[in-house]
Amino acid sequence: MFMRKSKALVVMLTAAMLLVGALGAAASGEIPSGPIKIGFAVPMSGTATSLAPDAGINAQIAVEYINKYEGGILGRPVQAFIYDTKGDPQTTVDVFGKLIENDGVEAVLGCLSSSTGLAIAPRVENRWKIPTLLLEATTMQMFTTAVPNPKYVYRIGPDDVMQSITHVKAVLENKPDLKTIALGAPDYEWGHDVVNSFIKILAQFRPDVEVVYTFFHPFGEASPNFTAYITELMQRKPDVYVGYSWGTDGVAWHNQAKAMGLYGRIPLVFDVFAGTAKGQLAEEGVLAETRAGNAMFPPHELGYPNAKHAPMILERVGALPTYGMGVHMLTGMLYLKAAYEKVYALTGQYPTPEQVATALDGLSIIGPCGITSMINHQSTAPGMAVGKMHQREDGLWVMEDLLIVPDYMRFVPPWMTVDEFIETLGKIQ
Q1: What count of other Cβ atoms lies within 10 Å of the Cβ of residue 98?
Q2: pTM of the full structure
Q3: Are residues 112 and 174 in the same domain?
Q4: Least packed by Cβ within 10 Å: which of 7, 224, 332, 340?
Q5: Which residues contact 76 (CB under 8 A, 6 or more apart)?
Q6: CA-CA distance, 125 to 140, in Å (whole number)?
Q7: Does residue 388 sit in the same domain as residue 352?
Q8: 253: buried, middle or exposed (CB in 10 Å: 19+, 13-18, 0-12)?
Q9: pLDDT of 119-134, one tens digit each?
Q10: How many domains does the chain have?
């Protein structure tokens, strides 16, 4: 009996040593005194600001929440370094370099667009080697061609396939007699990705639906004119229109489409980003998405951490965010806190950047989007949801009748290609 117990103890100790070893060599020294520096590279000007108009403020709120309610990270208060990327890839690269090489931050949260994420991800993996949490940058190319075996780069926001599955399911639930559909998006990589994904996924669920019109409009022009697209769209008379115009394009599309009567002519309109920009794009009853899941919507008072986080946002911003970046910053901070504390609990030493990055993989937390898990080959899958826009008596725009797609339909397993995963969707619905 003693020998069996001894052998069991040896096995347990060996397993513990291997686990510690997997995190890398232990760092030397105690927990440093003073604040821990965390960088934020977010759009605060330019085209992207209509999607995340309060990115800088929400970064400040996330840090204030962590310091006030979570005790910082390993007892160290977080000091935020927040810079404007302007939504531009080269500016984003410059900002990352400044944060890491000049300011000495220990981790970075940032990137809204796919183009900015694709610009910095290879540099993080090959040069900077620091834990980096992409707040969006949804392109599937991120973890297939840009950084196919990521070690330091993770993504909090959804990927394109996860997004498209949610959109297809929402359209079919709201229009079960669907026969024809039209889709429009900006003319660049992401726009083509989401339209192509939507069409492939729709074919798995409803191969009988006819796509009567697709178009890709110029992206980010100073004074966009969508008259020709809107006219053609209304002439095709689809049962559903799904539009992916965003940023200043999204505002222009909405205003022009409303003036031309599009919302009264098509039975179901899904303006994907209609829930953003504090209602500038909102139409009563129109479908919209939220990359923040359902967690930021009433009754947010019942949930952790939203019972304290949401009132901070309402007080400073005046509206709850529907787009993910507004809450993903707190999600990222909670992930970093959990990773630091995990490494310290195992080693008794202050973590190295490599140890923090390793500890993030497979880590689960309770955040503003509910329970999420970090997976380094794709996303945390924060709870994509679609709902109908509704303006309350107090003027606040919210989403009702939210649809959230189950996890098993949103994760692309690492042993499958994206196309293989899409082909299975018709079998598991």
Answers
A1: 15
A2: 0.82
A3: no
A4: 7
A5: 31, 32, 33, 34, 35, 36
A6: 17
A7: no
A8: buried
A9: 999 999 999 999 999 9
A10: 2
